Model the fold of this input.
Amino acid sequence: MLIGTLVYGFVNSAILALVAMGFNLTFGISGVANFAYGAVYIFSGFFAWILLNSAGLPYIVCVIGAIVGAGILGILMYYTVILRVKGIALSEVMATFGLGLAIMELFRYFDFVGFRYTLPIFFDGSLSMGEVYIDYQRLIIALIAIALTTFLYFFTRYTKIGLAFRAIAQDERTALTFGIESDRIGALSMAFGSALAAVAAIVILPLGTIAVEGGYEVLINALAVCIVGGLGSTVGILVASVLIGYAQTFTANYLEPHWMILVSLIAIAVILTIKPSGLFGKQKELEERV
Amino acid sequence: MQMLKVENLMVFFENALALNDFSMELDEGQIVGVIGSNSAGKTTLMNTLSGLILDMRIKEKRRGGERITIYGKIIYRGEDISNVPPSERVKKGIVLCRERHPVFGESSVVENLRIAGYLKSRGHIRKTIEYVFEVFPGLKRLRGRKAGFLSGGEQQMLAIGMALVAEPSLLLLDEPLLGLSPMMQNMLVESIKRLKSDSGMTVVLSEQFARPVLPMIDHGYIIENGMLTLSGTGQELMDNPEVKAAYFGV
Done:
């Protein structure tokens, strides 16, 4: 029982890390808290479903289509809405949240509700580790979370765009003096963040059905992980995912499964009272040194 | 050959006049100094030349504000670039090194230099990083250190090094000597001279310290309250009684 909880807690942590990664990336680079993140997540799910079931495309094409589609949606949101309010934090939150609501409720309005909205799992079957059985889909989730984290680590250190991402995140105006356009990088950060949401959706959604409510839940979980870990900190995201992930799994196994989301909300409340910048929030020590 | 011509530049922040009818000219290969005290308009001039003020104005306008006004013309190699965005100006070879040694504190020295080469090829970046380490040997042993943990002088060397990676034809240095010890100042002045002799780079540098700067410049402009009050060769300015009184305390 305990071993099972530990294994499933790790998978749950991987799910949270996957879900939070895109939100954190966009915020870390362009400073935009994308509250339409949950909407992008379920948009990707429904989009893949439509491509698969209505257009009848092979699944791999649907997966790529959903990821690219989410990226394009991110760029569109950036240029049409976010750019006009950029730099005014409250307006950014209201604009993206409103946009997210509109997207999600549109799906509900067009009757995207019910058990038939599911995405296929990648491989059937499960692996037994002693007395614990774990299905391949959950293993894939964990592997993809690890792979994406590693990819992002190298991407932001060794590629031009990645370095430009980090430059804009640190000092937009100085980055401009080297020809790094903040608008273009901002749009790219939205595209990357949204594409990561799509990857998360594609691997996580096969575990259940695609539902509009899932979008809200994803947003709350992403916010919880980012607030606990400290927005903009990759290490913080990983640590917070593990903390909240295990707390949720233990709650579900030993208390009540539907209290899981409460764990996220309580974590947000507790961290905001004790340490509002999060466990690994940006250190101030480097800022002024003349 | 004339490289840059600034015609009647005026910049307002709300109703405060930061630059008032400022004109200047410079030829290829010159080192030109803009000398003035704090709040004289040096940084506004540099930011207008590099396009940062234009960028600020565009971003502000997008949000519905119109507090920045720019009048006048900037002509670079015969082309009016007054409305060219900063990234395009970098492509044309106008590179600004902002005041107070602007480096990316959370990235290492080498990463900073690579970021600066955003518009350049990998080969070019590798080559110029070697050149930067040659001009500023002190940076080489610090290559892996986070830029935020360098001293002020080291950060300034890195900031200039970063500008070099962007391959400037016209290098704008905004108060490169600010907050540095006299020894460090001399060292930087020597390296700026070296840039000129190595690659014929044109340099505009703004300073409030006239003493280390005047001997090295081909031409100087004295700026006060956003207005041009005096211009001449470095020697002429050094001999001018008013400059002597204001900047050398004689």
Q: What stands out?
A: Confidence is low (pLDDT under 50) at residues 283-290 of chain A.
